[in-house]
Amino acid sequence: MNLRPYLYPQNLVRQFASALLLKKTTGWRHFVPWLFNGAFRSIPVAAGSIGMGCIGYGYHAVWEITEACNFSCRHCHATSGKPGPDELTTREACQFIRQVRDAGPFQMLVFTGGEPLVRPDIDDLLSCSKDLGLINVIATNGSLIDRKRALELKRLGVKGIAVSFDSTDREIHNYIRRNPRAFDLALRAIEACKAAGMVVQFNYTAMTENLATLKDVVRLCHDVHADIMLCYQLVPMGRGSNIADWCLSPEQNRTLMNTIRRLQRDSITIVEPVAGPQYWPHLLKRDHPNPKSTARPTLFHGCAAGWGLVYVKPNGDVWPCPFVPVSGGNVRERSLGDIWRHGDIFVKLRDRNQLKGTCGDCPNRYICGGCRGKAYAATGDPLA
After folding, report:
1. Which residues pair with 324 in a beta bridge?
2. What one-character-per-residue DSSP string does 263-292 give?
3. CB 362 within 8 A of CB 352
4. Which helix (H) or strand (E) holds 26?
5. Would you call the peptide bond into 59 cis, given omega within 30 degrees of 0 as the criterion?
6. Helix (H) or strand (E) run with residue 259 in it
7. Which residues does residue 158 pair with via DSSP β-bridges, in sequence order?
8. What CATH number has the domain spanning 5-379?
9. Are 345 and 352 in contact (CB under 8 A)?
């Protein structure tokens, strides 16, 4: 019997240990029911786990398959709208998917955009990925998913769906998404994907305009038994640079970390910050005076840019993170595996001794590392 790598005992133990540490540091009351329900359902989507960090479980290969989108969200880091002029063709895209399979550490592929479901050949690409043995996940605004489409996607090997959901207040969500039906369509997609048996994830972006509704979003995640909630923070790039004043202040950021910890205690959904890797040392300091000695990066690894995550643009450029627009190469010219292992920016980000300034001097850099996207947005240097 060929056992998938994410079912190897050492990987399961690592996932269990990181979740157990989350329980200890947050007082998580739903650990046991999660362990016997959500944990096993989430294992394929967490394929290749190296521990909890910025974007859940690495290693993640995330592919922005198109710049096209049927929304025009105010905070979109990709400035999505019309298709890009040099996006990978269907043939090139299938060759790239083989590169993902052959690169080594990647067992799952996240299809994002833009809105991935508006790309005409999306079903062909999902089928190609499934046939090559990869786990498919889609990050979407949810507008194009009803019950019929959810079942079709499941047949195409989609194990998990991540739906953008920025507020339980319909007016706020629709205002951010600039679409009067965005809220209702997102809820329809969540219900349809739950009914189809997929792992369901909420993607929430914390900013001044919606921060007051965070606790209600977490409560909704709990009520619908969502498996994961990623709590992004607004990074001022793309269209987000036009609303930089919506970014959280340092004090609001500290409040956010405390709020997530408190809400985690009573939610069956795992809530993880994105662009907020300081959450992990924040948790550990509550119980341990020396976090470096009690939680190695194999459990909490903080910022995943470049060593737990690779982000591929529609034209084939390979970034370490959607918020770090520094290319390590292009898959039309070099294999993804070569870029992943030897690309200059990837090599640098894996050595946290290369971090500069406050993060470079911080004893928590091995379990946090600071958000490299925020560093780039503030200084133009992802190592600052």
Report:
1. 321
2. HHTT-SSEEEEES-TTHHHHHHHTT-S-HH
3. no
4. helix 9-26
5. yes
6. helix 250-264
7. 136
8. 3.20.20.70
9. no
Question: CB-based contacts of 276: which residues, under 8 Å, 6+ apart?
Answer: 54, 231, 233, 253, 256, 257, 371
Task: Please tell me the pTM assigned to this model.
Answer: 0.94
Among 147, 148, 180, 187, CA closest to 164: 187
Does residue 116 contact residue 66 with C-beta atoms inside 8 Å?
yes
| Domain positions in the chain | 5-379
H/E element, 153: helix 147-155
Structure tokens, 144: 């194009």
Degrees to nearest 5, angle at CA 275 with 183 and 286:
110
| Nearest in space to 322 (alpha carbons), one of 41, 67, 14 | 67
Neighbours of 13 (CB within 10 A): 10
| Structural tokens at position 56 | 């859940």
Per-residue pLDDT of the chain (384 residues; tens, 9 = 90+): 466 666 777 767 777 777 888 898 899 999 998 888 877 777 777 644 444 554 444 578 999 999 999 999 999 998 888 999 999 999 999 999 999 999 988 888 999 999 999 999 999 999 999 999 999 999 999 999 999 999 999 999 999 999 999 999 999 999 999 999 999 999 999 999 999 999 999 999 999 999 999 999 999 999 999 999 999 999 999 999 999 999 999 999 999 999 999 999 999 999 988 889 898 888 887 655 554 554 555 667 788 898 888 999 999 999 999 999 999 999 999 999 999 999 999 999 999 999 999 999 998 888 889 999 999 999 999 999
d(CA 266, CA 286): 18
Measured CA angle at 53 (ends 63, 320), to 5 deg:
35
Burial bucket for residue 358 (CB in 10 Å: 0-12, 13-18, 19+): exposed
Structure tokens at 227: 């498996």
| Three-class SS state of 113 | coil
